[in-house]
Design a protein that fits this description.
Number of domains: 1
Order of helices and strands: HEHEHEHEHEEEEHEHH
CATH topology: TIM Barrel
CATH class: Alpha Beta
Structural class: alpha/beta
Distance between the termini: 52 Å
Mean pLDDT: 94
Number of strands: 9
CATH architecture: Alpha-Beta Barrel
Helix content: 40-55%
Length: 255
């Protein structure tokens, strides 16, 4: 109870003045929500989807193709505003020692990456899902992967980049990770999270980049109690909207 009260006060103190400036300008921040690493249904996913429904907040669930996609599609399908995205091929780190973790590495041919991507797309299709977004594990965007996604007409979502709807592939990133990962996974902390959120909002306001989206990033399987508690408080404040459409999706819908 005390922790919830402190977090609520911090949100008011650290984000309140900045959000007031947005309201004064007649604007509302464009925030969207992505959750990574889904493989199957379970209590954590149920809690995640429950929050999406309770606060009427759309959600993009990045799912690993080797999981139980049929069950995931069924659970997400009954929650309004929830979509599935492709989260890599097997979520296996193939990077050389000392290199950043990644699934697609130097030496992989375009044909090999396309074959893996086609296998992932087939797995989603078997579950009755036609995803339009690819989320690389560890947010590691390799050039060969980018080319493969462009060939297949998929959008890309990494971390901390600007919206690029006309790029090949079109891209929309996440920016606000609720978790810290070293030395172990745990809630980032309200002050750290809110400080970054305030900075991102202020940058967009000063540049008058009102429609530049900010992506909230969660990992439901790794949340501790503090992360869940804070998420329940911050969702009504940030009010995430549907993921911004990318040009490939617009073209697909118009076809």
């Amino acid at each position: 109870m005390i922790g919830r009260m402190i977090d609520r006060l911090l949100i008011l103190a650290m984000l309140g003045p900045e959000l007031a400036l947005w309201r004064r300008a007649g604007r509302r921040p464009v925030v969207w929500w992505r959750d990574d690493d889904a493989r199957r249904t379970g209590p954590a996913l149920t809690l995640l989807l429950g929050m999406s429904a309770r606060y009427s907040v759309p959600l993009t669930v990045a799912a690993i193709p080797d999981g139980d996609l049929a069950a995931l599609a069924g659970a997400c399908g009954v929650t309004p505003g929830v979509e599935l995205a492709i989260h890599g091929f097997r979520h296996e780190n193939r990077a050389a020692p000392g290199r950043p973790s990644g699934e697609v590495v130097d030496g992989d041919s375009l044909a090999e990456v396309l074959a893996s991507l086609d296998t992932a797309l087939a797995a989603f299709a078997k579950a009755g899902v036609r995803p339009s977004l690819f989320v690389p594990p560890w947010n590691n965007v390799h050039r060969t992967l980018e080319t493969a996604l462009a060939v297949r007409g998929l959008g890309l979502s990494g971390y901390d980049g600007m919206l690029a709807p006309e790029a090949l592939p079109p891209r929309v990133d996440a920016h606000l990770d609720i978790m810290r990962w070293k030395p172990t996974a745990r809630f980032r902390g309200a002050r750290r999270f809110l400080d970054r959120a305030r900075r991102l909002l202020a940058e967009r306001r000063r540049k008058r980049a009102w429609n530049e989206p900010i992506g909230l990033l969660t990992h439901h399987l790794d949340h501790d109690e503090a992360a869940w508690r804070f998420l329940a408080l911050i969702l009504p404040v940030l009010q995430p909207q549907a993921r911004p459409l990318l040009s490939a999706e617009v073209a697909s819908q118009a076809a």
